[in-house]
């Protein structure tokens, strides 16, 4: 079952975060308030997901926990960059056809 959730979280991290928020208490262990997780779900879902899995079981993260958070940040930034590049190329695609 955890492997199925990992595949599910890889394709739809926002849905996986909402699932964790509503059906488990892992968010209460990782975060104190509600504002930072909300911003994380909207803007940086992979980073938030990696932080929840790194910080909640341990309380404070170690090197590998921060490495996974950094990996999640790179995934989020690559998605934002690809969105930016595709937005700039929309005019070229419409003129080609």
How would you characterize the overall build of this protein?
By secondary structure, the protein is mainly α. The chain has one domain. The chain has 7 helices and no strands. α4 (35-43) crosses α5 and α5 runs antiparallel to α6. The radius of gyration is 16 Å and the shape is elongated. The N and C termini lie far apart (46 Å). The model has no long low-confidence stretch (mean pLDDT 85).
Throw out a few tags for this protein.
97 residues, 0% strand, mainly alpha
Q: Which residue ranges are poorly predicted, with pLDDT under 50 across at least 5 consecutive positions?
A: none
Main beta sheet: strand number and arrangement? none
Distance between the termini: 46 Å
Please work out how many helical segments DSSP would assign: 7
Structural class: mainly alpha
Nearest-integer average pLDDT: 85
| Beta strand % | under 5%
Radius of gyration: 16 Å
Quaternary structure of the protein = single chain
Tell me, briefly, the overall form: elongated
> N-to-C SSE series?
HHHHHHH
Helix percent reads over 70%
What count of structural domains?
1
Query: What's the β-strand tally?
Result: 0
What topology does this entry show?
Layout: H1 2-11, H2 13-23, H3 26-30, H4 35-43, H5 45-58, H6 63-88, H7 90-96
Helix pairs in contact: 1-2, 2-5, 4-5, 5-6
């Amino acid at each position: 079952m955890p492997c199925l959730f990992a595949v599910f979280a890889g394709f739809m991290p926002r849905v996986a975060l909402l699932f964790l928020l509503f059906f488990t208490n892992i968010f209460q262990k990782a975060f104190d308030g509600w504002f930072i997780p909300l911003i994380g779900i909207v803007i940086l879902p992979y980073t938030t997901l990696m932080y929840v899995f790194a910080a909640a079981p341990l309380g404070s993260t170690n090197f590998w926990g921060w490495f996974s958070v950094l990996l999640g940040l790179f995934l989020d930034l690559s998605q934002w960059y690809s969105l930016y590049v595709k937005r700039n190329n929309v005019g070229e695609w419409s003129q080609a056809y």
